[in-house]
Write a structure and sequence with these properties.
The model has no long low-confidence stretch (mean pLDDT 78). The longest helix is centred in the middle third of the chain and has 15 residues, at 55-69. 25% of the residues lie in helices and 16% in strands. By secondary structure, the protein is an alpha+beta fold. The protein contains two helices and four strands; from the N terminus they run αββαββ.
Length: 93
């Protein structure tokens, strides 16, 4: 079993941030404070909440669809490329 999160309290704070106009809400294990993202800061994509139709989510989903349907050229499957299928592979991966 793989469990990245166990909720110990309601998600009211997350929904409040979305209701206040934030397009996405993520977490970081940094200082633990909420606020605007800074260019130098990082966040984890293990948990993301988002407003429907937000620009970030649209771009992310378009990129994911492209990568998940990409076919690697022969030999590319062994290098660090994101693709789910290798062209001319003798068997499905």
């Amino acid at each position: 079993m793989d469990a990245d999160f166990l909720l110990m309290e309601p998600l009211d704070r997350v929904f409040k941030l979305l209701d206040e106009g934030n397009d996405i809400v993520v977490y970081t294990d940094g200082s633990g404070t909420s606020g605007q993202c800074q260019a130098r800061e990082q966040f984890s994509s293990n948990f993301m909440a988002a407003r429907k139709g937000n620009p970030f989510g649209e771009t992310w989903w378009t990129n994911m669809k492209s990568k998940l349907t990409r076919i690697c050229g022969e030999g590319e499957f062994k290098v660090e490329k994101i693709c789910c299928h290798e062209a001319f592979a003798p068997e499905p991966e």
